[in-house]
């Protein structure tokens, strides 16, 4: 581990204390996990504490852990943020799990970083994670009448409804999915000498 990452880890432990549930160093990156109740306060500390100084939120996304390995026993939905400190030249990944798998809710960080606005809307749209305190939490990628959240692991691949243009009505209409589920195994064709170094 580099001295810089060691220093960042020490600063995180010093300023977050008991609010830090887990700190991981892997592949040259520092990741932390915090409880949903502490999330907003931790994010504010990460931005405002000069020894941490994460003035920029680079990314925020949702994650559905329901099919994550065979031994996963934790909560289902998480919001994962990637922070950058330009002043201190380091990065941090922050993960927070929603307490309720049936109705996942975590605090919004848009009052801290305005760049979180569309990221949180995307996580809401695709995973159904509600960001408490977001001033305009509505769908951003799917249609207004879309049913469900398409990045959830239990969402059907073909969806619930399909839309098509009806020339008789002169408009787009929605109808139940008519596609039959099937397994498609692609055929791969290669030359006889594929991968043979001697034959180029």
Record the SSE blueprint.
Blueprint: H1 3-16, E1 20-26, E2 29-34, H2 39-48, E3 56-64, E4 77-85, E5 90-97, E6 105-107, H3 116-127, E7 130-132, E8 161-166, E9 171-176
For the structure shown, list the relevant keywords.
200 residues; alpha/beta; Beta Polymerase, domain 2; 28% strand
Give the second-level CATH assignment, the architecture. Answer: 2-Layer Sandwich
The residue-averaged pLDDT reads: 89
Number of strands: 9
How much is the radius of gyration in Å?
Answer: 22 Å
Number of domains: 1
Q: Estimate percent helicity.
A: 10-25%
Structural class, please? alpha/beta
What's the story with the biggest beta sheet? 5 strands, mixed
**Biggest sheet strand line-up:** 1-2-5-4-3
**Percent strand:** 25-35%
Order of helices and strands: HEEHEEEEHEEE
Low-confidence parts: none
What is the CATH topology? Beta Polymerase, domain 2
Compact overview of the structure:
With 200 residues, the protein is α/β, with parallel strands linked by helices. 18% of the residues lie in helices and 28% in strands.
Describe, in plain words, how this protein is organized in 3D:
With 200 residues, this protein is of the alpha/beta class. The mean pLDDT is 89. The strands form 3 sheets. The protein has a 5-stranded mixed β-sheet with strand order 1-2-5-4-3. It has one domain: NADH:ubiquinone oxidoreductase Nqo5 subunit (Beta Polymerase, domain 2, 2-Layer Sandwich), CATH 3.30.460. It starts with a helix and ends in a 24-residue tail after the last strand. The longest helix has 14 residues, at 3-16. The protein contains 3 helices and 9 strands. Helix 3 (116-127) links the parallel strand 6 (105-107) and strand 7. Helix content is 18%, strand content 28%.
